[in-house]
Design a protein that fits this description.
Elements: H1 45-56, H2 64-71, H3 73-101, H4 106-146, E1 148-150, E2 153-155, H5 158-163, H6 171-186, H7 196-222, H8 238-243, H9 247-255, H10 258-267, H11 274-300, H12 321-355, H13 366-386, H14 390-399, H15 401-416, H16 424-458
Antiparallel strand pairs: 1-2
Keywords: Amino-acid transport, Membrane, Transmembrane, Transmembrane helix, Transport
GO molecular function, one term: L-amino acid transmembrane transporter activity
Transmembrane segments: 71-87, 120-141, 168-189, 201-222, 242-261, 282-301, 330-347, 367-387, 393-415, 427-446
């Protein structure tokens, strides 16, 4: 059965006809009454926007104020807008080349351009990126609810602050309960459109976080408690210049949603609306990113931490500051809980494609669906309990798998130009994206490695 191809709508009039599963077949039937599912006539424009926006806005938003700390306000805002432009261009190329080949998945598109090894590489990158991101989400949720310790300093979690230290609000117990009560049920949906309401709520929670941050900043500005922020970066030597590039993996991670574009388009009632969905989502998310970065940096200045959420563990110096701190952390922890299943959905599909490339669609195999779901959630749960730093995970995934998915692979597909539809502008942007991605991330990796080496060298024995 098909869920609608990436070809124009006139080529998919019959949603009831069965097709032989092949490289170009969609992964989830749009109408499945013969297989025991309810009829599904296609996802709405708004539902697709919420699902794509939820894919974009994840934990990366918490690190964006720190990019302002490194770059200053003017370059920081300019880079956020520039990355949104590049993201829109790369997704537009993915959609155009997918339609030319009537392909319904990112892996299928890479396979069409570069063969089975290209497809496998894309699926591996989605697996690495999404597992890393989901581990980060779970770590942050654990930090917010049960607390964390860093450099010998303990930051109390919400539950510890409210009820004191109890056996049931320890990190492992909290993550286990969250996994069983929230992640597992939401990850059990077989259509991504089924998550449209939780996605809408997650976007609303991100906006609540933003509104509270803006409100706190305005109150502090009125009371004179905010200093003038830096507009440009501080560059004193070559090392400080290279350090500016460490923001690149964070910015790349903040906009990565390419692995979910095909899944969302496949379920759209009218697939020709997908480019509008992408532009609407990017415009909304970029606005949230700019405001969060601006007001977060305005509020905390050079004291802005890599995870701005940790700044809300201190005295804000305003009435009801403690209550506002709790509101910020609760809204964001709930936001991440609802983002989890949207990022998990393409992870499961790509793992299934790697392990069972010749099998029937995953949605039609209940045992395989349940086994992969349980296995992946268990792996993420274990990773969240044993990986010490979310930023180690962010820097790794942002500088490797994420940059491949977001920029290098779409550019390579356009340069390969199997259907001879790439324009000179496409090829120019493709070369530009590859050079920029490779250079920026090599410098970022070098700068991070140098800083880590220097920190270990100066640490007391």
């Amino acid at each position: 059965m098909t869920i609608g191809s990436l070809a124009p709508k006139k080529e998919k009039k019959s949603r009831k006809s069965k097709q032989v599963a092949d490289e170009k077949a969609p992964l989830l039937p749009k109408k499945q009454e013969e297989d025991g599912f309810d009829e599904f006539d296609g996802a709405s424009f708004s539902g697709a926007v919420f699902n794509l926006s939820t894919t974009i806005i994840g934990a990366g938003i918490m690190s964006l104020p720190a990019t302002m700390r490194e770059l200053g306000l003017i370059p920081g805002i300019a880079v956020i807008i520039f990355m949104a432009f590049l993201t829109e261009k790369s997704i537009e190329m993915l959609i155009r080349f997918s339609r030319a080949g009537k392909l319904a998945s990112y892996g299928g598109l890479m396979g069409d351009a570069f063969g089975k090894y290209g497809k496998a590489l894309a699926q591996i990158c989605v697996a690495v990126n999404n597992i890393g991101v989901l581990i980060v989400y779970m770590i942050i949720i654990g930090d917010v609810l049960s607390g964390t310790s860093s450099s010998g300093v303990h930051h109390a979690g919400l539950l510890e602050g409210w009820f004191g230290v109890q056996w049931w609000n320890g990190r492992t117990i909290i993550l286990l309960v969250t996994t069983v009560a929230v992640f597992a049920p939401l990850a059990s949906f077989k259509r991504i459109d089924s998550l449209r309401f939780t996605s809408a709520l997650s976007v609303a929670l991100a906006v609540i976080f933003l509104v509270i941050t803006v409100g706190i900043a305005i109150v502090k500005i009125i009371s004179g408690g905010v200093e003038m922020p830096r507009f440009i970066p501080i560059v004193t030597d070559l090392t400080s210049f290279f350090k500016l590039f460490t923001v690149v993996p964070v910015l790349v991670t903040a906009y990565i949603c390419h692995y979910n574009v095909h899944n969302i388009e496949n379920e759209l009632e009218d697939s020709t609306q997908m480019q509008g969905v992408v532009r609407t989502s990017l415009a909304m998310c970029s606005s949230v990113y700019i405001m969060t970065s601006f007001f977060g940096f305005l509020l905390f200045g050079d004291a802005t931490l890599d995870d701005v959420l940790a700044n809300f563990d201190t005295d804000l110096g305003i009435p009801y500051g403690s209550l506002l701190n709790d509101a910020v952390r609760v809204s964001y922890a709930a936001h991440l809980m609802l983002v989890f299943p949207v990022v998990f959905y393409p992870l499961r599909l790509n793992i299934d494609g790697l392990l069972f490339p010749k099998s029937r669609p995953l949605v039609l195999e209940n045992f395989r669906f349940a086994s992969i779901t349980i296995g992946l959630i268990s792996l993420i749960f274990l990773g969240a309990n044993f990986i010490p730093s979310i930023w180690d995970a962010f820097q790794f995934t942002g500088a490797t798998a994420a940059v491949c998915l977001g920029f290098i692979f779409p550019a390579a597909i356009a340069l390969r130009d199997r259907y001879e539809i790439a324009t000179k502008k496409d090829k120019f942007f493709s070369v530009f994206m590859i050079v920029l991605a490779v250079f920026s991330n090599l410098v970022a990796i070098y700068s991070d490695a140098y800083a880590l080496f220097k920190r270990n060298k100066t640490a007391p024995a």
